[in-house]
Specification:
Layout lengths: L4 H24 L4 E17 L2 E10 L2 E7 L2 E7 L4 H15 L33 H16 L5 E20 L4 E19 L2 E11 L8 H14 L9 E7 L1 H14 L2 H5 L20 E3 L22 E5 L2 E2 L6 H7 L13 E3 L6 H8 L2 E8 L9 E12 L2 E14 H6 L1 E4 L9 E2 L3 E9 L2
Parallel strand pairs: 8-13, 12-17
Antiparallel strand pairs: 1-2, 1-3, 1-5, 3-4, 5-6, 6-7, 8-18, 9-10, 9-12, 10-11, 13-14, 14-15, 15-18, 16-18
Pfam family, one: PmbA_TldD_2nd
Keywords: Hydrolase, Metalloprotease, Protease
Protein name: Metalloprotease PmbA
């Protein structure tokens, strides 16, 4: 059972018509501006545990949302019913809500001249088999293979297979109306290993636009088993200040703090340690971050953002200097700056890197902590203070010695950014941020 692109195109065309109708209704109701959007997704998700099917879920999600503006007052409402009567009632409700909201001079649409009037087809939709038989077979094959790999694998938190296809449509009273199809498929497995009456848990996953780009169930299973077994015999370490490596699969969390710190909401609330740092050197000169929203088939590609603004390639960091903030139209007006096309998130960040792989980074580090898991949310974006639970491996003389857990790593993001030593070439392709492992000069590791 594979969804057909033609069917999705027809459904998207119907939604586009509903968006046009809603915008026309808003104009007739006296709104000075309006915007309307709908994201729809349908698919299947299967969960297994201990080699048995635990859940099978079919989803069909999507609601049409309308926002109207009148004298800088905003009202929003949504509906899953796309009949003319329901759309009219939804627009009327949004207009009624606008009557009771406070005026905000920064409310409104993104500038008309920034709309994506001509945008590329980024080939983001590759429908996959969504039959229960296929989905169940993928999840079971993954988990059963994992459970058969080693007698120390004694339990499982399950495997998951998901396949979803849909589309996104956005229109506003500037006359912009756009939409594109998209898909996402994923497979994951979580296993538990036991040794000497102690247990460890780890996982692996694969995600892609195309099912053919997913790792085979056996590969996902073997990676989950390898990572879980490697954590057996974990110890604590003595508290010390040492170099730290964030392995590539957790580096996305590290870069996520940069995203938050340079996003408009944090900036206009004056809740970011990078406020008024545009143009400043915040990383070493070797670091560049390039954003490319138009990678064909990219996991974080998008021809336009959530406000219809044309996305474009840009430098986020160049030679260590901060080149841009990430601003929606509201944030841009609050900060008296230009909209950047980041309503809804970032698009395919490419982190510059050197020639060293993870093993070479460990040799460069000498003695320190290789972080493979982060826990908790102990990050203060106002001043940059950083403190999170972590697990990973202790490294001495450039070689991994033993697994480590129940430690806390602490520092300040300003220092962590400025004192970055290297980025490896072991890029994890599963994230919106394409980054290798990150070597930092020093952090406090709190253990025993």
């Amino acid at each position: 059972m594979i969804p057909q692109s033609n069917d999705l195109e027809q459904q998207m065309a119907m939604v586009k018509q509903a968006v046009q109708d809603a915008l026309q209704q808003a104009k007739q109701a006296g709104a000075s501006a309006a915007e309307c959007s709908m994201s729809q997704s349908s698919g299947i998700a299967v969960g297994t545990r201990m080699g048995e099917v635990e859940t099978v879920e079919f989803t069909q999600d999507g609601a049409l949302g309308i926002s109207v503006y009148r004298d800088h007052c905003k009202g929003s409402a949504s509906t899953t019913d796309l009949s003319p009567q329901a759309i009219k009632a939804t627009v009327e409700k949004a207009c009624e809500i606008a009557r009771f909201t406070s005026a905000d001079p920064y409310n409104g649409l993104a500038p008309a001249e920034l709309m994506a009037q001509h945008y590329p087809d980024l080939a983001l939709c590759y429908p996959g088999d969504q039959s229960p038989d296929y989905a169940i077979a993928q999840a079971l094959a993954c988990e059963r293979h994992a459970l058969a790999q080693d007698p120390r694998i004694t339990n499982s938190d399950g495997a998951h297979y998901g396949s979803h296809c849909g589309f996104r449509v956005y229109g506003n009273s500037h006359g912009f109306l756009g939409g594109y199809l998209q898909s996402r498929h994923d497979l994951s497995c979580v296993v538990i290993a036991s040794q000497d009456d102690k247990m460890q848990r780890d996982m692996s996953y694969s995600v892609a636009r195309k099912t053919s780009d997913l790792l085979a169930p056996e590969q996902v299973a073997e990676e989950a088993v390898t990572q879980t077994l490697a954590r057996l015999g974990s110890r604590k370490v003595k508290t010390a200040k040492v170099p730290v490596i964030f392995r590539a699969d957790v580096a996305g969390s590290f870069w996520g703090h940069l995203v938050s710190a340079i996003s408009g909401g944090s900036l206009y609330r004056k809740a970011s340690f990078l406020l008024d740092r545009l143009g400043d050197k915040i990383f070493p000169e070797f670091l560049t971050i390039h954003e490319d929203p138009h990678i064909v088939g990219g996991l974080a590609s998008s021809p336009f953002d959530a406000e219809g603004v044309q996305t474009q390639a840009r430098e986020i960091i160049s030679d260590g200097q901060l080149q841009t903030y990430l601003l929606t139209s509201y944030a841009a007006r609050k900060l008296d700056r230009q909209v950047t096309g980041h309503a809804g998130g970032i698009h395919n960040w490419q982190i510059s890197h050197g020639d060293d792989d993870l093993a070479a980074l460990c040799k460069q580090m000498g003695t320190g902590l290789l972080v493979t898991e982060l826990m908790g949310q102990g990050v203060n974006l106002v001043n940059g203070d950083y403190s999170r639970g972590a697990a990973g491996f202790w490294v001495e003389n450039g070689e991994i010695q033993y697994p480590v857990d129940e430690v806390t790593i602490a520092g300040n993001l300003k220092d962590m950014f400025a004192n970055m030593v290297a980025v490896g070439n072991d890029i994890d392709p599963r994230h919106a941020v394409k980054s290798g492992s990150i070597l930092l000069a020093e952090m406090k590791v709190a253990g025993q």
